[in-house]
Specification:
This protein is α/β, with parallel strands linked by helices and 443 residues long. It has 14 helices and 19 strands. The longest helix is centred in the N-terminal third of the chain and has 25 residues.
């Protein structure tokens, strides 16, 4: 009897562990927002300056000097940008698609070397198509179990950088996914704090009381509900807070709110004078093999990208516990399917006559019922409905026949389908087997 009880307890522990890691893995795609927030914070000042100050040479000369590096650099980059309605975009490598690897690394124990020995907490492969001005992003779970190049055996993919630096990281991803990485950008944990301090803080409305203390991690969060002016450390605390019912989803939403505050701050003329400080921080906390010219060209492209048309996905798999080590075991077949679609852009041409099935999850039942009726009116069979707990509304495609083209066609039929983030997830576990799922947060 005792042995049976122990076996039951072990089974229960394994089940709980599986559920926990499955939830964490499902939320892993929110890290896409996390790393982009960091990159935007670092480069947005430079990007906006190229376009906002393109016709304002007097401002540049007054604040930085006629012959200063900043003045000459911005004037050079904005020479071909006289027509604001048709901003020039000419990548130095032409119109072929590019794979850019975004990495967020953890803190280093060596203050003199911020990169050596660090693990990559965030790994995202971004595919940029200059011809169609579109972006796809593939989130790679940091616990993915992979073979490391050379004689380094099996390990988590985030250990590749700690063992062999950026070259081993790139080689591991290329070998695992069968892709080529053209450029990389790494952001250190300290970048956000330093950038916000360089801008003299940000104004944020804190949506609810936030109180949390982690003494071992030296994290202390103490915010009341209301308007706050956050310095760099407080901004990091605001972004890292996740101890509520929404977890990482709530944190992603707060990252978006902080970004809005950042954009508003950057519109103020006084902020432009902070650009040298922002560049100085970027030199220290950002590592990349891109030239400044290449980054400026990507900035030009970014002006034309419809954020609602960005397609994101996460490498599919399942959690697995081996002793005290937890892995994300990639599903080979579905992983190849995701890579083909997101990186190689293989997709089916949708046929309006082919029937589709859908699931609707909504935070408000009335909103969910209305969306179900809209779908039925469009000829779509709503298989199931349920309660949404996420703070972010999404259109999640499960079938290969549900593409961004299909979603755009659907939006044209009824504007009620618009405003949703497009996600590709071939693992259909939300609400029965359907071609796609619509999640409505009510926000």
């Amino acid at each position: 009897m005792t042995d049976q009880i122990q076996r039951n307890r072990k089974d229960l522990d394994r089940t709980r562990s599986f559920i926990k890691h499955a939830q964490e893995a499902r939320e892993e795609r929110s890290s896409f927002a996390k790393v982009l927030i960091g990159m935007i914070i670092v480069f947005i000042g430079v990007i906006l300056s190229i376009f906002v100050l393109a016709d304002n040479e007097n401002f540049l000369e007054e604040h930085f000097g006629e012959n200063s590096f900043i003045t000459k650099l911005f004037e050079k980059l904005s020479v071909s940008n006289d027509n604001k309605e048709h901003a020039d975009f000419a990548l130095p490598f032409g119109l072929r698609r590019q794979n850019i690897l975004f990495l967020g690394v953890d803190a280093s124990n060596n203050p003199n070397d911020l990169w050596t020995g660090t693990r990559t907490d965030t790994i995202i492969l971004v595919n940029i198509d200059p011809r169609t001005k579109s972006v796809n992003a593939l989130s790679i779970p940091r616990d993915s179990k992979v073979y490391l190049p050379g004689d380094n055996g099996v390990n988590k993919i985030n250990a590749a950088h700690a063992i062999g630096g950026i070259e081993m990281t790139k080689k591991t991803i290329e070998d695992t996914l069968g892709v080529h990485i053209d450029r990389y950008i790494m952001v250190h944990d300290s970048a956000v704090k330093e950038i916000v301090d360089a801008m003299d803080g940000l104004d944020i409305y804190v949506e609810k009381p936030m109180h949390y203390n982690d003494y071992s991690g030296n994290l202390h969060i103490n915010f009341s509900k209301g308007d706050h002016h956050l310095d760099g450390q407080q901004a990091v605390e605001y972004l890292r807070f996740r101890h509520d019912a929404l977890g990482d989803i709530g944190r992603t939403q707060r990252q978006q709110w902080l970004l809005r505050s950042l954009l508003n701050k950057l519109k103020q003329p006084a902020t432009i004078t902070k650009i040298p400080d922002i560049i100085s921080v970027a030199k220290k906390y950002v590592k990349t093999d891109m030239s400044f010219y290449e980054m400026s060209q990507y900035a030009a492209l970014a002006k034309h990208i419809d954020m609602d048309k960005i397609e994101i996905a996460m490498l599919p798999g399942a959690p697995n516990q081996k002793g005290y080590i937890s892995y994300w075991i990639l599903d080979p077949e579905k992983t190849q399917e995701v890579v083909n679609r997101v990186i190689y852009r293989d997709k089916e041409q949708f046929d309006e006559a082919v029937p589709m099935t859908a699931a609707v999850l909504a935070s408000d039942s009335a909103i969910g019922e209305q969306m179900s009726e809209n779908l039925k009116s469009a000829g779509i069979d709503v298989k199931c409905t349920g309660k949404a707990t996420r703070a972010h509304s999404q259109f999640i495609a499960h079938s290969s026949k549900v593409t961004n083209d299909y979603y755009n066609w659907l939006k044209k039929k009824n504007e009620a389908f618009g405003g949703l983030q497009f996600v590709y997830d071939p693992v259909n576990y939300y609400c029965g087997e359907t071609d796609f799922t619509i999640i409505l947060s009510g926000n």
